[in-house]
Structures are given as C-alpha cells and as structure tokens.
Amino acid sequence: MKKILILGGGIGGTIVANKLARKLLNEIIKGNVEIKVLDKKDYHVYQPSQLLVALGLEDYDQLMRSERVLLEPRIKFLSGNKGNVIKIDLPNHRVITEDGNIHEYDYLIISTGSHLAWDEIKGYREKALSVWDLNDVLKIRESLEKFKGGTIVINVSRLPIKCPVAPVELTLMVNDFLKQRGIREKSRIVYTYPAPGVFGIKQANDMFLEMFKERGIEVISPFIVDYIEGDSIVSQDGERIKFDLLLGVPPHKGAEVLKEIGDRRNWVSVDKYTLNVKGYDNVYAIGDTTDLPISKAGSVADFQSGPVSENIVHDILGMGSKVFYDGSVFCFCVGGIGTSSYIRYNYKFVLPVPKPTTTIWWMKLMYNRMYWSLTARAVI
Amino acid sequence: MIYLKIYKTLDYTGVTSCDNAVGEIFSSLEDLKNDEVLQVILDADWKLKELKEFISKTKYKILDVKKEGEKYIVIIGGKS
To answer: Given A87, A146, A156, B62, which is the most exposed site by the fewest CB atoms within 10 A?
Structure first.
C-alpha cells in the first residue's frame, strides 16, 4: 500500500487531499492507496473572507466549516493531539504526532501555512488589531463602528505576508466605510509599508498609488516598524506616527514544527517547478509553507495542488510523466466597498490589471461562497 | 582574510511576489548572523536600482555586484 500523508488541513492541504482522493479513488477502494490528513484543528478557516467580515460585508459564519465535512469520505483525518505534528523525520519517511503515534509515508505533502509572530515587534500585540488574526476580526468591526474620527494607521510590519494585496484592500475599504459613516473628513488614513510603494507588482502598485492619492490616503514607505510606544508607531528611522486606531499585519513565520527543515523563519526550500522539498523526491511543500518568492495566497496553494497531485498519481500508477508548476497566481483586489479588480500572473508574465468594477466585485463574492462547495472539494 | 558564509540565495528573476521583493530581501537580512551574507539574483536594471536605493537607507550594505549574462548576482551584508 502506498501511503500519502498531508500535513495541514488549510486551503492547500484540503484541496490537494481531495484532488488525490478523486484521482486515486479506485486505488483507495482496492486498498492500494491510503490518504491521511493531519491537523491540530478540526475546523477549516477560509482566511480570505476575514477581511470582508471585519468590514461587516460578510457574516462570521462564512469563515469556518468542519474539516471532516470538506474532505472526501475515504480520506483519513486526524485532529487534536492525534493530528498535531511534533516531528518530521524526512530521512526515515515518518512523522510523529503529539499522541506519540508514528505515521510512515511514501509521499509527504507539507501544507502547514504561515503563522503570526506578534511578539517580534514590541508593543504590537497590545496595540494593533489585525484582519490576519481570526480573534481580531470582530473586534475590528466593532472598533470601526465606534470610531468617531482621528488617525487610522494601516501598517505592514514585514514581508512576506499572506494575501499581500489585503492591506491595500483594507485601506481602500476603510476609506469607503468612513465615507459611508460621514466621518471621512474628520479622519486621516495613513498606509505604512516596509518597502518602496504600496505593493509588489508594478502595474497594480501604480494603480493603487493613484487610487490612494485620489482618496487622500497618505502613504509612508518604506516604513519599517521598530516598536509601538503608547499610541505611536515608531520606525527604525525614528519616524513616529500617532494613531487612534492601528490596523496591523504582524510578521509571518512558517510552522514551528518546520524549525529543523526550514530556514530561520521556518520557510521550506523547494524546487520552484516541482515543489519538491530540496533533497527529497517524495516530499512536497505547497502554499505559504515554501520559501518561494511568490505570493503567499490561497490561490497559489490551489494552483500548486494540481502538479503535486498529478505527479504523485503518475508515480503511483507508473505513468512516468512530470507536470510542473508555472508560478501561477490569481488574486482578486478589492478597490473599495463594491468594486474589485484582479491580478493574474506566473513566473513569466503579468496580465494587464483591469480597473476595479462592480462586476468583478460580485465575482469575488460569488467565488468566496463557491469556495466551500466547489474549490475546497476540488470539484473545480 | 575574512570568510563570509552565504546564508541563503534569493532568486528574484522573472515575475515574483505581490509582496515587494525588496521588502522580502530586507526581512532575510534581519535573519543574518555576523559572519553571513545574503545572495540575491536579479534580472533587470530597475530591480538593481531599487534594491541599491533601499539598502542605502538601511544598516546593511551591498558588498558585491556581478553581472552574469542577463542576471545580476548581488551580495548584501551587515555594515562593518
């Protein structure tokens, strides 16, 4: 029997598990293949919706589903201490979970995501609210509803972050939210980013800078936050901005369990085309887990699940051919409340970034709803 | 003679992240130990210019730039 072990039941782990289960259904029924997913949590969060929930545009119950329900019934799923991985032993092809069990594998897919390192910046956890933290989502909604005017600072502390366009989306939506409440003129919105500009892809960066300018949103970049003191955010250059509300993106790291196989931030080094963990032909990493210089986003994990599942299936069925990941990324980019654009690129080219429209906004909302019934289940 | 170890190589050729590459490079610089440097591969003059401008405002410095075909191999380390 060939054993496929998947670490992480987030977007990447769930989609790749379901793709494999669909492609290998006959082999699973015959008892030739076993697919197992391990995750400490027994629920699945659709993180891209956290932004919309924080702005009151989606309901909180849109964020979560039971992981067991999302996975194909023939996939084994272990959670709690049975699914909490404490050691990955690549040379011996095995993984150990908190309950002491050893899980051997023929193929391993690591999809353990990125995690927030709040403590790396002094004062950040105490003062900032973050759309990236599930526990903060409803607090942000409440803070925005109570906000009476003043300075809102949106800060990206370090890069990379997951969903890199979300700070820009948040800024544009906060602008519209304050306008709707009639307090935009009593408010200052300041966007601070730890690199030049506001975003990484030049075409989109230029468009966003223009949109910020039209809306009177201030941009201070590069701004590398050093610490928070009282109600001020202070950069490494000593620049200080006083805020009434700080909406921040804490530094990100890979999962702690990857400390021994990742770099100093626990990102795992992979081949950019095969997604094999370097030195191991039977081990893959997908999504936020890798150190690839491409976006950490759900769509990336989704795109990567295609070649990884294909290559494992080809190997098991003895088909021999290889499929490569081409660097594909697709992200909706909200241009304010009620409009959206998108970005689509791969390692070689970027498609033109369209102006935000209402039609694309509705497509985005539809996509979020369809995630649970189609994307996560690998139907599309 | 001082030997500096390359902590890691960042390949920023082609289209890269929605995160600004310069910002990602900076984060890796913060992870360097004293005797280490970062190697960055770039494939455009504008990328090199942006990186140089950014690094000049930080406590790090560009120690070497080599052109190999269409690519630039840049070594960055801590300020001595």
So the answer is: A146
Which domain, by its residues, includes A191?
118-251
The DSSP element (H or E) to which A370 belongs, if any, is helix A358-370
Whether residues A98 and A133 fall in one domain = no
Name residues of chain B where pLDDT drops below 70: 1-2, 79-80
Q: Distance between the two ends of chain B, CA-based, in angstroms?
A: 14
Domain end, chosen from A219, A251, A283, is at A251
User: What's A174's domain CATH number?
Assistant: 3.50.50.60
Spatial neighbors of A94 by CB under 8 A, at least 6 apart, are A102, A103, A104, A105
Which positions in chain A touch B21 (Cβ < 8 Å)?
195, 200, 293
Does any domain span residue A169? yes
Rg (alpha carbons) of chain B, rounded to whole number: 12
Q: What is the per-residue pLDDT across A165-184, written as a single tens digit (0 to 9) for each?
A: 999 999 999 999 999 999 99
Q: pTM (2 decimals)?
A: 0.96
Is the separation of the CB atoms in A112 and A8 below 8 Å?
yes
Cα A282 to Cα A76: distance, rounded to the nearest angstrom: 20
Q: Is residue A151 part of a domain?
A: yes
A196, A251, A350 member nearest B50 (Cβ): A196
Mutate to test the interface with B, among A159, A249, A270, A353 (most CBs of B within 10 A): A159
- With contacts defined as CB-CB under 8 Å, which chain B residues touch A265? 27, 31
